[in-house]
Protein: Branched-chain-amino-acid aminotransferase
Amino acid sequence: MMDTTVQNIVVEKVKTSKIDQIDFDNLSFGSVFTDHMLVCDYKNGAWEIPKIIPYQPITLDPSAKIFHYGQSIFEGMKAYKDSNNDVWLFRPLDNQKRLNISAKRMAIPELPEEYFMEGLKTLLKLEKKWIPQSEGSSLYIRPFIFASGKGFHASPADEYKFIIACAPSGSYFSGKVKVLIEETYSRSANGGVGFAKAGGNYAGQFYPTQLAVKKGYQQVIWTDDNTHEYIEEAGAMNIFVRINDTLITGPTSDRILDGITRKSIITIAEDEGIPVEIRKITVSEVVEASKKGILKEMFGAGTAAVVSPISGFGHKNMNYDLPELESSYASLLKKRITDIQYNKTEDKFGWRYKV
Amino acid sequence: MMDTTVQNIVVEKVKTSKIDQIDFDNLSFGSVFTDHMLVCDYKNGAWEIPKIIPYQPITLDPSAKIFHYGQSIFEGMKAYKDSNNDVWLFRPLDNQKRLNISAKRMAIPELPEEYFMEGLKTLLKLEKKWIPQSEGSSLYIRPFIFASGKGFHASPADEYKFIIACAPSGSYFSGKVKVLIEETYSRSANGGVGFAKAGGNYAGQFYPTQLAVKKGYQQVIWTDDNTHEYIEEAGAMNIFVRINDTLITGPTSDRILDGITRKSIITIAEDEGIPVEIRKITVSEVVEASKKGILKEMFGAGTAAVVSPISGFGHKNMNYDLPELESSYASLLKKRITDIQYNKTEDKFGWRYKV
Structure:
């Protein structure tokens, strides 16, 4: 049995913090990093005890499998600081579990829960000063694993690195986005890796998104690869559609990520008495609903942006605008979820996790 | 306009070669590397002039996009040394062109042809001693590009590295393989990135292959993601099926790699007077042909293994054995292609390229 008890994570602190160089009033997303990072190596068939070291470059052999075969997975999380200076995570065990679900599909050895959770808490306590307190800001946390083992043979690596890096961040998107419903490209296959947070799922989206941007849209709505008739995801987020007063989202599958924001929104919406349907959404019904004036809202949901409202969509060379609502589900649900995250309200579902 | 003339590639040589430490009689595939590598950086919107430096580790920020979003592509090539000590490549411009086809799909800036070809030739001239001369051995060449630019935003990187590393190698597979026709997992989606040599395409195959190995097979035969009724690729290779005396391979598509070995085999087979069909292959016809005794051969085709004969396949919990033939297409075609590669025969198609 592997010893997964983490009694004493070795911490090597920086000599001088760089925190004074950071403009906390003008943070972009994920572009400045805190003083330290957690590193945990998989070698000789086991994960070693994690350690915390100064944030620093990673050195790899040119034949490291990450460069050649895309064996990498990640998670996205946030730490929130409330008005009492207490630090909170949101459903972190769900990220830990999903990391291992992704790991399994990508033939990466699963990481012990304790290494993830104790490592993360130790890192966040050390980096507490880096967690912004202002409205909408948070410490974006990026746990990731990649294949560091060497060799050109197309097979799983024998060594991996698990790293947690943190970036104090403002909000991810600003304003509403106009989206293109994809008719040519696709994000994932049946029996593929779309449900995993695998690196390659994201790189594959960049080119179709660039094409959509050239046509005047900001994001792509992904559809199934076989018929392009079912709506699956919005960019790198899950998607919600409101027709009349019913909120609809697609069921998770091997093509669709089991988003933590997605399932939290479903719970909150049901708690609000909103009729929620988890079922396949067709492009035709969305187009028809728009024509009839009963398509009230569309929005993406994910950790980075929380809720990202959509102002309109393009499909088969036609554009469809969504109405401006005085009280939208998007803003209601975003407020309820962020109020829980920032400890501004009761946590009736037990989602907050104190660091 | 970018200046893509490469007059003088700067070469920084190693002080002491490590070639004396290598056992050239016992080379595995892609696990020891030559003294030098080519490195070319993309920065400030342009590829810089490539340089050759001692083979050495790569240093990257933990937020480098390769770790998070799988933005990486590669090629596989070989250099062959003939009995006169002359060095040959096989259709290298096709690799150069395909690298840029992959680059476009993965939102990676295209690399000037001259940088690839002049860089490669300069590197191979420097590493000539490393190219094995023995039967079946060659210098495996791995050109690859990955996103080195920083930041957690899920968008294309602003910096990339193009590297060519080389590994003197023995043959990739030994012996025939037993394969499992996949009924659950899949390799690529319509409108996806399956035709590109993108890293993520390979990592996604590891887990289904592990499951097949547990069942007693060595490789997976990939089928379409929608019906699992069409045969698409064999592991990381293209696939050929011989029914009676007709050689059949699937058409290239956005799901299937345009393999250089594949198209060379088609040309040679036609030159041999073998009836060749390029059309979709159904699982049912392969199973039926096997039952009737007219399924003569199946083999994979790719740069690393050249031709990899299949001894039998599993499908829906049944196993089907292929016959042992005295004169197989696989061995005929492998001999003809390798004879051209190693300069043992006339090059009637103009495929050899002298370094």
Observations:
- Helices of chain A lie at 65-69, 92-105, 113-126, 199-214, 260-271, 283-292, 329-341.
- The radius of gyration of chain A is 21 Å.
- Chain A is about 25% helix and 30% strand.
